[in-house]
Amino acid sequence: MFSAKRGFASVKLNRCFSTRPISIYPRSRPHPLPRLLTSASRNPASNLRFSTVSQWNQQAAAAPLSYSEAAGEEIQEQVQSPEPPSEVKGGVQRKDGPITLFSELAERGLVSQPVVDTIVRDMGIKTMTQVQSLTIEELLKGRDILAQARTGTGKTLAFLIPVLQNIINNDPNLLDPRIGSKTASSTDIRAIIISPTRELAEQIAVETGKVTRGTGVKVMTAVGGTSKREGLMRMRRHGCHILVGTPGRLKDLLSDPYSDVRAPNLKALVLDEADRLLDQGFAPEIREIQQLLPRRQDVDRQTLLFSATVPREVLQIVRATAKPDFKFVQTVQEGEQATHERVPQRFVTCNGLENQMPALVELCLQELKKQDTDKPFKAIVYFNSTTEVALASAILQQLKPSRDVPPSDYTFPRSTYIVEIHAKLSQDRRTRAADGFRRAQSAIMLSSDVTARGMDFPNVTHVIQVGVPTNDDQYVHRIGRTARGDKNGEAWLLLPRIEARDFRYKLSQFPLEADHSLQTATVNMKEEAQLPEHVAGILRAVGERTAAIPAHMKADVYRALLGTHQQLQDKAGLIKSMNDLTRYAWGMAEPPGLSMGTVVKLGLRGIPGLNIGIDRDNPTDVRPGFGRDRSAGGYGRGGGGGGGGYGSRSGQGSFRGSSSRDGGGYPSSGGFGSSRSSGRFDSSTSERYGGAKRYSRGFDREDPRSSERSAQRDSGY
Ligand SMILES: Nc1ncnc2c1ncn2[C@@H]1O[C@H](COP(=O)(O)OP(=O)(O)OP(=O)(O)O)[C@@H](O)[C@H]1O
């Protein structure tokens, strides 16, 4: 957990435990709603939109089609945005206009002075961001709000301040730390904040601890992967006013008749990353949590929903269930993508899947060379599956100088912190990885989507995505890890040629520019070539490190990639590319085996090039040539059949394409297409090996709909 020593909250936060979850709120306004119209009173200086259901009916006319109107439903009012810079610069605040300075919250008697002092004096935050300016005052009135604002624009404080103040307004004693502490109880929780990931829940709890410092309001966390018992003991001992957690553990606590965790006077329910929490993966648990809370007819509470992305369906769900005074605050203009203008976005087309790792290493080396003490290189590299994260981490870790690895042009500086994070690690390791990366100056974090949303790592200079993300929202959230607050950052996307169509389809609306600076991206690994020394050097370095990776790890990545590329139409092209990866990058004599069940499930039946009937997950499969023992030895440097992968012997700048005849150089062939293996890779032969019944594991894309669900099951995500 975070501690004051590490530069986080001095308030002691406690984590507890695990799981269940929406028709979001009870329907509280008449249905069906009349079709409403949009009025537009847009401030020319503004690109903000602000809507209230109660105002919809008063709107009469015209104006362009709004988001919701286009959807055939209600209306939105376009209202003025604040203009913080000019007003704030002059130090003169309009007393009737939108609030843009935190100090004014106290001056207007809206927020208690000690709370404002904490924000302004202790946290050093004086001026509000747009989303804060547009929501805080409204939320203080107890309204339901769904707010959409760009990543890194302070949405957390936007909901924390009103949640805290409304609790204090309801029970002013809580402003006094002594009295508040004495009256705190786990059976009288006043606010619940739900986050889709454990790391984010912990981060929000730390932020809440900062804001509540100096008051008697107690903050606790409840996330999976931690001891439920210990968490409960802490909660009972210290009490809790604000509980921050993940859906599974919250549901578990609230539904447990012996937990003593209750919220009979709940004032606020916050859904951070609301669209994620309301999608199919989490919605059932959120629904169950709501059913465990007092009915809104009996106890009035507000619901606060925040995210950088708000798909239309989410808006519709929320509208259908929110209070009549519900507002939709949107600081991202309609049709505009919620990525920051300050993030240059580049894509690199790699010749094949086998070029991605060298291109990643080349990019990191290139950017590390440019770093200086004022701006150290700090990158998050996103992959679409946990196995890819693990493999990349294993390779990159070995590119750091050690007893066995002398520093060279192809190694990272010793000071570069390299760490992996994904849902299959223990919670303890995940927390340590996140903490370590947060504190590090120069660092590379290999990550699945567990860190894609909400995580506020300081000073991230680069977000690099390997492969096309699941959808455009995921792209937005990932690149939102950089350029936070007033910082700058850049985003890179490395994709193989086979994903080009997918890329154009999913990400066409983003301002991505082609980049051709990475030479390793375009090398044709199948042909002999004379390469510049530094290109050959990178290929050699990556090849040697790849050779040392156990075969089963590569086989897992192979299966995961098949899963994450399921939507690709060109199956034959996919298998060919995958087999090139296993051969030219990993030095495998033949592709990892797949059971017939897996092949069928993936829609690959009849596709040439598969190695069917051999599944390392099947313990009865003892055919020679497969499984860990053989293939572990089959990689790497120059074994006759093994290969060595990337340029393991391509010194002096020369770079030799593979040939099954010479079996050496870069990369060696290892019998691909040799008589021994021929026949295995055609579908007719494959059929003969069919019959394995188990569905292979390894399809572990951590995308919003599959893996987080399984992660949730596995580890209380
Ligand atoms: N008014 C402000 N002025 C300057 N910095 C702020 C302000 N409000 C919040 N911050 C800081 O900006 C950073 C990003 O805030 P936060 O994590 O709340 O962003 P977010 O909008 O929730 O992002 P995401 O969409 O990624 O979840 C934090 O470090 C926070 O302390």
Automatic annotation (TrEMBL):
It comes from the Eukaryota. SUPFAM superfamilies: P-loop containing nucleoside triphosphate hydrolases (SSF52540). Its EC number is 3.6.4.13. Residues 614-631, 697-717 have a biased composition (Basic and acidic residues). InterPro entries: DEAD/DEAH_box_helicase_dom, Helicase_ATP-bd, Helicase_C-like, P-loop_NTPase, RNA-helicase_DEAD-box_CS. One of its GO terms (molecular function) is ATP binding. Residues 360-529 form the Helicase C-terminal domain. Residues 71-94, 610-717 are annotated as: Disordered. Residues 651-661, 674-684 have a biased composition (Low complexity). Residues 136-328 form the Helicase ATP-binding domain. RNA helicase. Belongs to the DEAD box helicase family. PANTHER family: RNA HELICASE. This is ATP-dependent RNA helicase.
